[in-house]
Design goal:
Length: about 260
């Protein structure tokens, strides 16, 4: 148990601190680090355990941001309405995939998310034009459809409820960045609850791994939230993206 427990606590603390600083990567960072720390563990257990701990981490992240009122509830619920059912489908699909198939999928999705973070960071540094914000919220159907795509990816891999939700809201849907983060937290939390319940039913959750990770991620996310106003989040997001890409490359190299 100790061999499983201690590395998970370290993984949780590193991942939680980075998530608290930037608001993204709850699934991506933890899943990437778990892939490196536990290369022999079945990918379904990594996905399910990373999803379960992300619920706890997001609860604390939502609590830390409760004082910021951005009117995000309708957007978050619309996205969750599409994402939550497909998250359950994604979790079920992962159950039926062989480890030799799921691990490359997990690594590839990690690489894509990492590259998105890098591109966003570069674009924000180089762009001198203000972000164009939509005058009105997009239709609930459009938000739900995009949510369903992200929800399936999240259920399959435990990745995407932060980075991909925020990217789709602030990008093609043109929502203000602060509202996008707040809405993504609401949608992500609801989606992860459904996904975790499905993974639990399928036997994908390893209690020691979840507990060890949470013991590190909860104080980490609280520390990161306190540090968020003192550090350049744009640069940090790019660095996190680079780290995720490296972790994905290591995971893919180990498959050979």
């Amino acid at each position: 148990m100790t061999g499983l427990f201690l590395p998970a606590t370290g993984v949780g603390f590193i991942g939680g601190t980075l998530v608290g600083m930037t608001g993204v990567g709850a699934g991506s960072v933890i899943a990437a680090l778990l892939l490196i720390a536990y290369p022999a563990l079945a990918p379904q257990l990594i996905v399910g355990s990373a999803t379960a701990q992300a619920v706890v981490m997001k609860l604390f992240a939502v609590g830390a941001r409760r004082r910021m009122k951005y009117g995000e509830m309708r957007l978050g619920l619309s996205m969750a309405a599409g994402a939550a059912p497909l998250a359950a489908v994604g979790a079920y699909v992962s159950h039926n995939l062989h480890a030799e198939v799921l691990k490359p999928i997990l690594a590839i999705v990690l690489a894509v998310v990492g590259l998105i973070l890098i591109v966003q960071s570069i674009w924000r540094w180089r762009s001198s034009r203000p972000h164009v914000i939509a005058a009105d919220d997009p239709p609930a159907l459009s938000v739900g459809l995009i949510g369903s795509i992200v929800g399936f990816i999240a259920g399959l891999t435990s990745i995407g409820t932060g980075t991909l939700f925020v990217t789709s809201l602030a990008g093609p849907l043109r929502i203000d960045a602060h509202r996008a983060v707040a809405a993504a937290l609401v949608a992500g939390l609801l989606t992860l609850v459904v996904s975790t319940a499905t993974h639990l039913a399928l036997g994908h959750v390893k209690a020691g791994l979840v507990l060890g990770t949470c013991l590190g991620s909860v104080p980490g996310v609280l520390l990161g939230t306190m540090l968020a106003t003192r550090l350049p989040a744009r640069s940090l997001r790019g660095a996190i993206g680079g780290g995720i890409v490296i972790a994905a490359a290591i995971a893919l190299a180990r498959l050979r």
